[in-house]
Amino acid sequence: MDLSFLFYLSSGLFLGWSLGASDAANIFGTAVGTKMVKFRTAAVISSVFIIIGAVYAGSGASQTLGTLGSVNTLAGAFMAALAAALTIYWTVKLSLPVSTSQAIVGAIIGWNLFAGKPTDVTVLSKIVGTWIFCPILAGVIAVLLYFLVRFAIRHCHIGLIRQDCYTRIGLILAGAFGAYALGANNIANVMGVFVASSPLHAVNFGTLFSLSATQVLFFIGGIAISVGVFTYSHKLMTTVGNGIVKMSPLMAWVAVVSQALVLYLFASQNLQHFLISHNLPSFPLVPVSSSQAIIGAVIGIGLAKGAYRINWGLIGRITFGWILTPVAAALLCYISLFFLQNVFDMEVCR
Amino acid sequence: MFHLHLSLFSRTKALECDIDNFHDKLIDASMTFSKAVKTYLKEGKSENFQKISRDIKKIEHDADTLRRSIENQLYANNLLPDLRADVLQLAENLDRVINKFDEATYLFYVEQPDIPQEYHADIKELSKLTSDCAENMGKASRSFFRDMVSVRDYAQKVYFIEHESDRCSRRLLERVFDSKLALANKLQLKQFINEIADIADIAEDFIDELLIFTIKRSI
């Protein structure tokens, strides 16, 4: 493997690290914040399942990003990932709900514009549609789950302590599923731009199993996300658990499962094939924002509990983020590619 | 993961068991107290009464041990982290009622009040009401841990019995102070009546708290 490849990949790894640091808090935040699950347990489960999700089921959403714009040089991919990462850093500073998906889509469009390649409007509209649909769907699923859980609690007469025990196990299982779905759905954001230009080869582990070149790339990306989980998500998990969203562990379970289901629906090729084969409407395989999904789920739970006052300020900020993040990433990517090509004399597109 | 599940289930079962036993102690204490008052009124500080008094002391001691065990398990095993403070407060207040039964019985044992026959029926009724009140409080508290839907039913019973106990204690106090007993006797009887009636008041306060915890916990 060429050392320059590692250098170019560093922006993607940085993006993966920041995704791990921020998005693991969406999965295990309340569980760790309320001390239902230890951080170490949460971090190990997140890391393992993020990597499994990324390697096993990450290609679906990645293919969609590839059809939006196939970044065909390593320098171009490096800059697209770096522009996305810097935009995320900036949106975090503005306290907007972070979306790696929107940043990377903006960066790809920036690359398309710079390289003079056409942007597939159909794919773009499909992706933008899911950004709006994703939190709404998470909210709807959360409402349904909330009523299901409430019915079960009221009719099954589960004691308080046993309920606590089941909730704890539920949070661990939901966290594992959430981590798998996050890896499957969001690895495209981290490594998707490198797929077309990656020099990596397939790896065979004897007769046991083999990894394709893309899966090797996703495995490296998965490790970067895991490093983010271990090194920086603890603080965010405590904040999510105690500060921003104050929820009971049971409601946290509802929110995490809703978010994980949404991410899974937009990432699973098997599910898509199943739905198509049964002539049912299928979900497009698109990377979506786990932060926005969990906000949708929390709003859904709030509405189901009878809190009819919607925080329009928060919804306004999400909408503002939808517009600001991709536009800023596209602009930043376009300007950076210009400098990379004309000042550093590097080939950013073919 | 398998080990985690197993140990979590066994810890949960152990805590459930201790909480159940703790509630049993409250019900034991309330019934034994009612029996102690009846025995004292009938026999005075007899051997039988002294044995009942020792029984209450033992119940109180066992309840303290169970309370400490519950507290230790909650913290050491990190159980019920989100409502640990509420459970601890409930356990403390349940224990307070058991202590109060012990104190009241001990007061009979030490002071050996001279209670005229004409007040016996009312004092028996008051101690029965107090005992019922505490018993229903224990049932409400147990329901909080087992089946929250029933908490309200028992709470309503506690409110009703506490009201009855108030009426009974007021009636008794009026009768005592209207009588020709010596002031020292009147004051001593007042102390005993208040000591018994206080238990129902504590039970009422406990239920107020319990209902708030139930609302907090309901989804």
CATH fold-level topology of chain B? Methane Monooxygenase Hydroxylase, Chain G, domain 1
Radius of gyration of chain B: 19 Å
Q: Give the class-level CATH name of chain B.
A: Mainly Alpha
Annotation field: number of helices of chain B: 6
Span of the ends, CA to CA of chain B: 29 Å
Mass-distribution shape of chain A = globular
Instruction: Please state how the strands of the largest beta sheet of chain A are arranged side by side.
Output: 1-2
Helical coverage of chain A, percent range: over 70%
CATH superfamily of chain B: Phosphate transport system protein phou homolog 2, domain 2
Q: Report the average pLDDT across residues of chain A.
A: 86
Helix content of chain B: over 70%
| Quantity of strands of chain B, as a count | 0
Which quaternary structure do these chains form? Answer: heterodimer
Radius of gyration of chain A: 20 Å
Rounded mean pLDDT of chain B is 91
Structural class of chain B: mainly alpha
Helices of chain A, by number, come to: 12
Q: Report the count of strand segments of chain A.
A: 2
The largest sheet of chain B, given as strand count, sense and whether it forms a barrel, is: none
Q: What CATH architecture of chain B would you give?
A: Up-down Bundle
